[in-house]
DNA sequence: GTGGCGATGTATCGGGCCGATACATCGTGC
DNA sequence: GCACGATGTATCGGCCCGATACATCGCCAC
């Protein structure tokens, strides 16, 4: 999961770890508060070993290095194999694509995903949430007298969140089918154009079988 | 976190692993979909080593063992030290008490928690969510032109969820202060009585043995 | 009657991710 | 000159997950 996110961010521009962590935090927002360094650095090492990313130590080619560069920050950049790996991860949608973290990361890179995959993921996520919702309704209907008031309140709040997310997903799916991008949310002034910076830069990029 | 949940459930009645997992799933609902066995069994072993829980192998004292009991299910029961440990975990509220999983588990056992601790946890959680909310507003205000339409939609959805949870917490806090138990939700027909089975089994005295 | 099959049940293993911790350097203020 | 907070890299122990491998029970079909 983190692998996908790192590859995606490094595709935009090379970065060092600290910067990567901050970008990750703003890009993923709620989904994944802030990645731990205890996760980030080992993952970077793993990606480097696999050949997806490369090291470009202190690549200040524009201005004169403002620091003595004794043993400075390590700048990582994505390799050609890394780009392939990224595309592969983007296109595939397993069960882990539909849990909270996995879905969030995939969604954050939807502007680089083709429409068919977007729809597949949105529908998979919806199904997942609908199952969760049914489970909660089951519990509230069947076992409500066996649980205390606080537990019940927790279930109710969870059920509410599920119903809300399903509606959100429905709306996104409808938009996808009709060819509109999101950002046409009802309660936003939306000063930015709906097709912002990179709405669809890959017309039909997914390699393997279209399916 | 799991430790608290297991101790709490075993306080209600002895159980074996499989049963524990199912109870955990219904009790925690959204918070923690279903605990993995790869987590559960090592945790049980850990709790047993620590002396918080004990083994009561195949304790079918009521009816004749319906199975040959070759090497049957292992029933776990909480020990006296385990009960103390549970009370200790219930009362303390660190930073990990306010993240999604931690808060959910604590909340699920609020009927065993004294009012002061409940308020402390609810307010800590509210603060945590408010910080998350402010972070999202910051991003939406400052970096909205730097992010694509999908990422923005993700942030907006996250912000919405934060605002909703803060309102929910406000309501719970108000109820706590005025001495009411929850379950008087506004948007529910609420066929069950608001003071269901165990709304407040501890009037004021916190931990130690309740019964 | 036996053979498959899904539910019940216990257990391990590799690996991802986290929090805590330890460093080292830079810019700034005093 | 030096303390201090921001920036920056890195490791360690530990929780938790998914995958996997078992073994048993009740039941139905053939």
List the helices and strands and how they pair.
The structure is a homodimer of 211-residue chains.
Chain A: H1 2-12, E1 15-16, H2 17-28, H3 37-50, E2 53-55, E3 75-78, H4 80-91, H5 100-108, H6 115-142, H7 149-177
Antiparallel strand pairs in A: 1-3, 2-3
Helix pairs in contact in A: 1-4, 6-7
The structure holds a DNA duplex (30 and 30 nucleotides).
Descriptive account of the structure:
- Two copies of one chain form a homodimer.
- Among the domains of chain A are: 2-57 and 76-101, Arc Repressor Mutant, subunit A; 114-177.
- Helix content of chain A is 55%, strand content 4%.
- In chain A, strands 1-3-2 form a three-stranded antiparallel sheet.
- The first copy, chain A, starts with a helix and ends in a 34-residue tail after the last helix.
- Chain A has helices spanning 2-12, 17-28, 37-50, 80-91, 100-108, 115-142, 149-177; strands at 15-16, 53-55, 75-78.
- Residues 58-70 and 185-211 of chain A have low confidence and may be disordered.
- Chain A has seven helices and three strands, in the order αβααββαααα.
- Chain A is mostly helical.
- Chain A binds a DNA duplex (30 and 30 nucleotides) through residues 1-2, 16-19, 35-39, 41-43, 45, 66-68, 70-74, 95-96.
């Amino acid at each position: 999961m983190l692998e996908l996110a790192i590859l995606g961010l490094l595709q935009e521009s090379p970065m060092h770890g600290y910067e990567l962590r901050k970008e990750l935090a703003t890009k993923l927002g709620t989904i994944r508060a802030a990645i731990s360094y205890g996760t980030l650095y080992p993952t970077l090492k793993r990606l480097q070993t696999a050949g997806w990313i490369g090291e470009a130590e202190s690549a200040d080619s524009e201005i004169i290095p403002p620091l003595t560069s004794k043993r400075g920050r390590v700048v990582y950049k994505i390799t050609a194999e890394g780009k392939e790996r990224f595309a592969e991860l983007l296109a595939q949608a397993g069960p882990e694509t539909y849990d909270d973290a996995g879905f969030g990361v995939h969604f954050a890179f939807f502007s680089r995903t083709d429409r068919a995959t977007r729809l597949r993921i949105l529908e998979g996520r919806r199904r997942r949430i609908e199952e969760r919702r049914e489970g909660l309704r089951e519990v509230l209907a069947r076992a409500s007298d066996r649980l205390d008031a606080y537990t019940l309140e927790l279930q109710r709040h969870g059920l509410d969140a599920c119903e809300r997310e399903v509606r959100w997903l429905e709306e996104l799916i409808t938009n996808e089918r009709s060819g509109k991008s999101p950002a046409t949310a009802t309660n936003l002034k939306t000063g930015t154009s709906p097709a912002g910076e990179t709405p669809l830069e890959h017309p039909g990029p997914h390699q393997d079988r279209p399916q």
